[in-house]
Specification:
single chain; mainly alpha; DNA polymerase, domain 1; hpI Integrase, Chain A; 2 domains; three-stranded antiparallel sheet; 11 helices
Length: 260
């Protein structure tokens, strides 16, 4: 495809007067070329519907929202340039609004998938180098994470003294060192007790590694990821999705939305 004179003039303007980066120039050139590939109407004769139809076509192909916004931004800036330089009397892109793109609802694990994940440590073959209490620790981590909805950073920072089995709660220091108390389910408390008894953990960090030091946030996340691979969960797992599943299941059981 031969280079379009108006496009080249626009890109020179971005380079010389707007000091645009090479990345921006490449992205804008690609956006304008992509439009011209699908619509050969001269720039000066394009109407608002031409741009609407193009943006809808881009959306239907499943491109990311950021990509669609970039296409729109390039066309809008290009036509602002053309009207400012008196190449056009009217800017048809001004009549175009970026189509609303439906956000996908967050995926939530089913109860069956959660049960499969929580029991995964007991099904995994035991490693000879790992302490015998490690599967119990991993069960306790996942039970507590699911039961309380704590952030991974909050869970890793827990001390033994933060867990109160009598009030069925844990004391958490969140963002800004703000203290709060979170209710915890009985299965999580029982799992913690079994792990502590087996690992002989009575004070200090609640969750420890093989060297008996506090687990890092990354280590806790790697535990979760390892067991996800042992399940039939077909979706890409993240801490946020697990926490969202926890909140959804609590609401299903009748919990107060404000407390969740």
């Amino acid at each position: 495809m031969t280079r379009d004179p108006l496009t080249e003039e626009f890109l020179r303007y971005l380079t010389n007067e707007r000091n645009a980066s090479p990345r921006t120039l490449k992205a804008y050139r690609h956006a304008l070329t992509s439009f011209r590939t699908e619509n050969q109407t001269p720039w000066k004769k394009c109407a608002a519907d031409d741009f609407r139809n193009y943006l809808f076509a881009v959306m239907k192909r499943g491109h990311a929202r950021s990509y669609v916004r970039l296409q729109f931004s390039a066309l809008r800036t290009f036509y602002q340039f053309l009207t400012a330089r008196k190449r056009l009397r009217r800017n048809p892109v001004r009549e175009v609004q970026l189509p609303k793109i439906e956000k996908k609802l967050p995926l939530v694990l089913t109860r069956k998938q959660v049960d499969e994940l929580l029991t995964a440590p007991t099904r995994e073959p035991k490693s000879r180098s790992a302490p015998s209490w490690m599967p119990l620790r991993d069960v306790a981590i996942m039970e507590l994470f699911y039961s309380s909805g704590l952030r991974l950073s909050e869970l890793a920072a827990l001390d033994v003294a933060d867990v109160d089995p009598y009030t069925e709660s844990v004391r958490v220091f969140g963002k800004g060192r703000k203290e709060r108390v979170c209710p915890v389910g009985l299965p999580a408390l029982e799992a913690i007790q079994k792990y502590r008894a087996a690992a002989n953990v009575h004070a200090g960090a609640l969750f420890i590694n093989k060297a008996r030091r506090r687990m890092s946030v990354r280590s806790v996340w790697l535990v979760l990821k390892r067991y996800v691979r042992l399940t039939s969960i077909p979706i890409s797992m993240s801490p946020h999705k697990l926490r969202h599943s926890f909140a959804t299941h609590m609401l299903d059981r009748g919990a107060d939305l404000r407390s969740v």
